[in-house]
Design a protein that fits this description.
Number of strands: 13
Number of helices: 13
Structural class: alpha/beta
Oligomer: single chain
CATH class of the largest domain: Alpha Beta
């Protein structure tokens, strides 16, 4: 069985890290797996970077063409939520996919003009598509900001700030509709129960085969590390209760909930607290929360993440929309309880008041209550043990990879 995992990047970004982990989990099970990307940062020989013949001048021309065709500039009220058109593709990726001749093509996050929507029908092998966000079934937004129009036909896009029925989102929606109607051997993997339900209820994907399977994680790597030693490595205080918040562009992406974090931290009852942020450098206008904030910037390797999760007392994930958060899974694997809003796929990993706390959506006071509850919990050690146990039992590499192998076999058997 030959599996080709396709993602825009190999190790940059949450979707890339998840796809890369699945790739190696399959290799560990002696599956012939290969990963194809257009942006390669690792030196992994099992990852193939699609070569490009485009030089600097041609790439600049490509960017001008993208701006012209995307017409994003026509929407001055667009929100900060990521929006992708996949109108152009300057790569020969489909030719490369078919040249490799895999038994199954496992798509993951394929935006940033990696592949033109219409070119998906040219892939000869059966397709399994893991949804890392909502893009596959929307008119271009990666998260719909709860507008729900993907259940109809998009248009009047909330993310674009559009009031017109026939806007860019409608155009992209129709393109996907025409393309997906020709793809009869495509299986949709919702990584969380929430996203799986959204996909099933969407106009674009409701007639496809659906299954809910999570991302895997290597619990022999993501495991508890001594708190004292971890704090020494990060030069963090030993006598403080530390709360961690992290995401790519953690303080600048509204969906990540930094505004809600700031409001919640002002309402904490617990004392002797310091706040730790990774995934973001110190902003120009730092909020005054009455206690110290440590900004650690971006982290690229698993060892850094493991020691950081192990150094803190609680992880805070206040995203307003979230699929299956790598940060939550990683933190729990390192035996650090997580506080998050009860949205998206968070309840797939967090068992309320067993290994963390699920706050009422968007209520900063309840988010503060959750932080206080974890930090002051008399049974904190039980919370930590439950956190680790949850991940080992439900998300470990060996457990999840076998579920994917079973899916591949079902696809191949028709």
């Amino acid at each position: 069985m030959k599996i080709l995992i396709v993602n825009t990047y190999d190790i940059v970004g949450g979707a890339a890290r998840a796809a890369y982990r699945l790739h190696h989990a399959l290799l560990d099970q002696d599956v012939d797996s290969q990963m194809l990307v257009i942006g390669k940062q690792s030196d992994d020989q099992t990852v193939t970077r699609l070569s490009s013949n485009f030089g600097r001048v041609k790439n600049r021309l490509r960017n001008y063409q993208l701006r012209f065709f995307n017409k994003i500039e026509n929407y001055p009220n667009k929100t900060k939520t990521f929006f992708s058109t996949s109108f152009l593709s300057f790569s020969n990726i489909v030719d490369k996919i078919n040249e490799i001749k895999p038994d199954i093509v496992h798509l993951h996050w394929i935006c940033n003009e990696m592949i033109k929507i219409e070119d998906l029908v040219k892939i000869k092998a059966p397709i399994v598509w893991s949804l890392h966000d909502m893009w596959a079934f929307t008119g271009g937004c990666h998260y719909d900001e709860e507008c729900g129009r993907y259940q109809e036909s998009c248009g009047k896009c909330k993310v674009l700030g559009s009031t017109k029925e026939k806007d860019l989102s409608k155009n992209i929606f129709v393109r996907k509709q025409n393309t997906f109607s020709q793809m009869n051997t495509m299986t949709i993997v919702g990584l969380s129960q929430w996203l799986s339900t959204c996909a099933k209820n969407s106009t674009l994907l409701k007639n496809k085969k659906h299954i809910c399977l999570p991302n895997p994680i290597d619990t022999s790597v993501f495991k508890p590390f001594g708190k004292k030693n971890s704090r020494e490595l990060w030069s963090l205080p030993q006598d403080k209760k530390l709360v961690l918040f992290g995401a790519m562009e953690a303080t600048s992406d509204p969906r990540k909930g930094f505004i809600e974090v700031v409001d919640a931290l002002k309402k904490l009852r617990s004392e002797n607290i310091e706040f730790v942020v990774f995934g973001s450098s110190k902003p120009k206008n730092t909020p005054n929360l009455g206690f110290k904030i440590h900004y650690l910037g971006s982290l690229a390797d698993d060892v850094s993440l493991v020691t950081l999760y192990s150094a803190v007392d609680a992880m805070l994930v206040p995203s307003l929309q979230e699929n299956l958060s790598n940060a939550i899974m990683e933190s729990l694997a390192c035996a650090t309880p997580v506080v998050a809003f009860d949205v998206g796929g968070n309840r797939d990993m967090i068992d309320h008041k067993k290994n963390g706390y699920l706050a009422k959506p968007f209520e900063s006071l309840d988010l503060a209550n959750g932080i206080d509850w974890v930090l002051d919990n008399k049974n904190y050690e039980d919370l930590s043990q439950n956190a680790r146990k949850k991940v080992v039992e439900d998300f470990d590499n060996k457990v999840v990879s076998k579920q994917y192998i079973k899916l591949y076999e079902e696809v191949l058997n028709g």
